[in-house]
Design brief:
- By secondary structure, this protein is mainly alpha-helical.
- Helices cover about 70% and strands about 0% of the residues.
- The chain contains 3 helices and no strands.
- It has helices spanning about 20-60, 70-85, 90-120.
- Helix 2 runs antiparallel to helix 3 (about 90-120).
- It is elongated.
């Protein structure tokens, strides 16, 4: 999600692009820079989230707890759907995103549990 060539309009089918009003191009550039910054923040927030979930995975593995916690996952989905509604974001989209993240977390927890079993037979 980067800014485009200031002299062209993406997707207009003309191949070489057409001139865009400088004020429109400036607004597109401003908005796209904001989008790029938000994307970077999302990536950094996900990285922080996964650092925490890795710690949870090690704690679970160290105490022979299962990698998945369906009751917590259900609570989190309900909570995230409500947050999405309050933020005027499609709750179904928010749930899909959280389910994707949860699946990755469980995969990490399973890997950690397997490593823990190998280290402590």
């Amino acid at each position: 999600m980067t800014t485009s060539d200031p002299g062209t309009t993406p997707g207009n089918g003309s191949g070489g692009g057409s001139a865009v009003d400088p004020a429109v191009q400036a607004e597109l550039t401003r908005l796209r820079e904001s989008i790029d910054n938000i994307d970077a923040a999302v990536v950094h927030m996900l990285a922080e989230r996964f650092k925490c979930t890795q710690q949870v995975g090690h704690l679970k593995a160290g105490h022979q707890l299962p990698p998945a916690d369906p009751a917590r996952e259900a609570r989190q989905i309900t909570r995230l759907r409500q947050l999405a509604e309050n933020a005027r974001l499609d709750p179904a989209f928010a749930e899909k995103l959280l389910n994707f993240i949860i699946a990755e977390v469980i995969r990490h927890h399973e890997t950690i549990a397997g490593e823990n079993r190998a280290d402590h037979p």
